[in-house]
């Protein structure tokens, strides 16, 4: 493997598997475990229609419980691999490996995970990548620990050297560093040619400090899918309008504007007076399909249509995600894709 030829693949490139961790009674899901498990079952059944799935479980008892649930949902168990490891929570987009690759080799980039800037305990989650490596999940792939806080949900890659991120998130993680300093760290650690920053965009109920995967996503063919808000009375309207203007001002490496796909706005979802972050931008791309969050809202169908249009040639599968937003995340946040060839 040559360090100089590594790159961060785009999510729409061929995948070997998707990685998740199953919620259980000792995670923050305990209060609504049955509801959130229904989402994990639907997700697992959807993923295994198209490719393998790796499920991290806390112990053999949880493995047996999950197996029974997935059998009853007709998930393809032949495409599922279980790994027993301890974990604090199940947001593997942020605690899982960020995998770089060249033509033949892979690097599991293991950034420091701080529980979104120290908001939650994260000692076990920060050790998750090392645990997966020790368990032999990734074969001969190199493991590189980087002592700098970054979550996978905080970056978007087009696979060709451009990474998109948000200033709101990374300045919270590293308040002592300038944008130029952070851009250099991102370029070096992710082998990126350039870093694009958004200054605007956030969602109430999101405790990630505006992860990019809740706001704007690269799609093939120089497209960007993003969460918009057309309700002028909503607190998010002005901020997301400004974010849309920022996206319109971005240029590709050829100097052309991106083709933008604004997503519809779900009606506010409240829980005990707290607004939850129902973003349609938090979708997951898998081989031959795109899995789209559904919230039981009138905008669900239109969001799925637009995301499908931005990812032509893929089956669109809606996954019920209302239980996920109770814990301030959605579909993309609980998953991490692994590039094709990783297990060869």
From TrEMBL:
The keyword Ubl conjugation does not apply. Gene3D superfamilies: L-arginine/glycine Amidinotransferase, Chain A. Keywords: Hydrolase. InterPro entries: Peptidyl-Arg-deiminase_porph (IPR007466). It comes from the Bacteria. The keyword Hydrolase applies. This is Agmatine deiminase family protein. It comes from Dyella mobilis.
């Amino acid at each position: 493997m040559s360090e100089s030829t590594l790159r961060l693949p785009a999510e729409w490139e061929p995948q070997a598997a998707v990685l998740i961790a199953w919620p259980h009674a000792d995670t923050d899901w305990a209060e609504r475990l049955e509801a959130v498990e229904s989402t994990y079952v639907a997700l697992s059944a959807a993923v295994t229609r198209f490719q393998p799935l790796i499920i991290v479980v806390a112990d053999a008892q949880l493995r047996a419980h999950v197996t029974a649930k997935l059998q009853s949902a007709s998930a393809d168990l032949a495409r599922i691999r279980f790994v027993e490891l301890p974990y604090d929570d199940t947001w593997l987009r942020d605690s899982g490996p960020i995998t770089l690759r060249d033509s033949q080799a892979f690097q599991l980039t293991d950034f420091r995970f701080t529980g979104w800037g120290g908001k939650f305990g994260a000692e076990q989650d920060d050790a998750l990548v090392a645990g997966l490596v020790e368990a032999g999940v990734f074969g001969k792939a190199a493991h590189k620990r980087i002592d700098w806080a970054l979550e996978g949900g905080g970056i978007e890659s087009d696979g060709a050297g451009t990474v998109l991120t948000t200033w709101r998130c990374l300045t919270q993680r590293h308040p002592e560093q300038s944008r130029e300093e952070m851009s250099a760290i991102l370029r070096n650690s992710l082998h990126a040619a350039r870093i694009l920053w958004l200054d605007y965009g956030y969602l109430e109920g999101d405790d990630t400090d505006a992860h990019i995967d809740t706001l704007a996503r690269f799609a093939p063919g120089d497209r960007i899918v993003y969460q918009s808000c057309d309700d002028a009375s909503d607190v998010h309207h002005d901020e997301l309008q400004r974010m849309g203007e920022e996206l319109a001002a971005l240029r590709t490496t050829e100097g052309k504007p991106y083709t933008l796909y604004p997503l519809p706005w779900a009606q506010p979802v409240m829980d005990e007076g707290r607004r939850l972050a129902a973003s349609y931008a938090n979708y997951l791309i898998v081989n031959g399909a795109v899995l789209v969050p559904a919230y039981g809202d009138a905008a669900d169908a239109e969001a799925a249509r637009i995301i499908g249009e931005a990812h032509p040639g893929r089956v669109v599968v809606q996954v019920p995600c209302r239980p996920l937003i109770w814990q301030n995340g959605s579909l993309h946040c609980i998953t991490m894709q692994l590039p094709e060839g990783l297990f060869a």
